[in-house]
Amino acid sequence: MINFILQQIVNAIGYGCILGLLGIGYTIIYGVAGLINFAHGEIFMIASIVAYLVGYLMQASFIYASIVAIITALCCGLLLNYLIYQPCIKRRSSVLTIFIASFGASVFLRFLLLMLLTDRRRPFPIPLVFEHVFSVGELRVPLKDVITLGISIVVVIITVYIVKYTRTGIAMRAFAFDKETAQVMGISLSRITTIAFVLGGSLAGVAAIVYGLTFGVVYPTMGFLPGLYGFMAAVIGGIGNVLGGFIGGILLGFAEIFTVAFFPPALSPLRPLLVWVILILIMLFKPTGLFKPNIKFEELRG
Amino acid sequence: MSLGKGDLNGGKVNNALLTVHQLVTGYGRALVLNHVSLTVDFPEIVALLGANGAGKTTTLRAIIGLIPCWEGEIVFGGTCINQLPPSDRVRLGLAYCPEGRGIFANLSVLENLRVGAYTLRNKRDFLKNLHDVFALFPRLKERLHQLAGSLSGGEQQMLALGRALMSNPKMLLLDEPSLGLAPILVKEIYSKIVELHEEQKISILLVEQNVDIALTASHRAYVLEKGQIVLYGLSSDLRSHPVIQTAYLGG
Question: What is the CATH topology of the domain spanning A14-132+141-301?
Fold first, then answer.
């Protein structure tokens, strides 16, 4: 039993890292642009599919496929920014309009890929060496889980460093707090939101690689649920708070994996139940999330 | 004093740093400013006075670019800046201290100053400006790593001023620096404003409800009423003007 629980903890951390990386993407884009980018899960999905196309069909190495996938995700972020977000800002659209536009982009991308590729599950190019499994006592720790955890932690540290210490990161936090005053400090609205989309998009690309390594499959509707959970991770962690977004993701990973492990199989359609219960409880008792959000709260009400 | 060369003809001066010409603007469809013209010379402190809702803050927001200019022209340092976003206006040498200070409460004092220096590319300039700001406001140095939100009102105002100075501005737009401060602090802040004007040769356009102190600190003043300039002149002359006496100085 103890081994079973340890095994679930290993799985939960792996899944939690994916949600956490997605959560950071939401949190950064929301913090800076004031937009819940519903198409974030689709950026993640497209990056996964590109990794499959490059790695599996073109027989490129894993590293090469990963780099191409991250660059693709970064470009998707840029495209969303230029095709959807910036035009809305230019027209001074309401927040609701921008939400609906990003939701539209999400549905469009998902069904476009569904039309092109059908919903067949395709293999993610995992290098054979990654399939090695360590045995610690009776506990089985796959090498790829160690690698995904390593990638996630390194990426989170880099992101926290950027947001906390660099000139651009400080500008992003200032912008998240007060957009008008930040602009009169010389921070250009279009430039800083573009940077946020690039950073958020790249993180979705990293999440795609971590997901591919963990689950080994890609398909056009794969972005929906992780995208939703990533958003919830950002909310739970206090929106705008980078580390909070990641911890929120880990928490949801645990909730999800442990319900799967301990719910009777007959109740499997109820799997996401606990995740939503956690969200509702946190929103009831701590509406701003577990950690200090990095935005002014008047903006959420307005 | 070279400061006394106030121009009473609405601003046809050779060394005008900022010229606002027939500015019309507002929010949504509501007209707030109706053909406002004013100039600020180099180096000069100009006060913009008026009651609540007269359009003082709107004037500053239009100059820095937070609201679009419907009609008229804003010229800064010889460049028409009507169409430029706020960030470009800052690069040209304008700096703005918003009403209520607008400090970033979620950032530390040092981070606030770094945001103020966002347009600087050179680390040496940054350190030099930081040094100058600390010389002017030694209290900020003591609070360097404290969250700006935890500062007292007076310290926050010092931070807002210091932050605006970090970008090497040619001109400061100050919106109600006395707001919410105890009288003794108002005096202190104003003595700093005059000091930085004299030492760093920065022109200042000042919006203020506290007419007494604004007229004391400034060389010239404009009075705004319902979106129009109704009175302007040397501050020393305006002080004894009957309109100012009855409406703003209480007798």
Answer: ABC transporter involved in vitamin B12 uptake, BtuC (1.10.3470)
Residue A40 and residue A22: Cα distance in Å, rounded? Answer: 8
Structure confidence by residue, pLDDT tens digits, A37-49? 999 999 999 999 9
Q: What is the pLDDT of residue B250?
A: 66
Token output for A158: 């880099």
Scanning B192-231 for CB atoms below 8 A from A yields none
Nearest to A19 by CA among A44, A46, A48: A44
> In order of start, what are the domains of chain B with their CATH numbers?
2-93+169-247 (3.40.50.300), 101-168 (no CATH)
Q: What is the mean pLDDT of residues B181-185?
A: 89
Q: Given CB atoms, is B129 within the 8 Å cutoff of chain A? A: no
Full-model pTM: 0.87
Cβ-based interface (< 8 Å): residues of A facing B: 167, 170-171, 173-174, 176-178, 180-191, 294
Nearest to A196 by CA among A38, A73, A27: A27
Nearest to B111 among A170, A180, A186 (CB): A170
Which token pair is A5? 């629980």
Among the ranges given (A70-79, A84-93, B75-84), the one the predictor scored with the smallest mean pLDDT: A84-93
β-strands B171-175, B203-207 pairing = parallel
Separation CA A238–CA A244 (nearest Å): 6
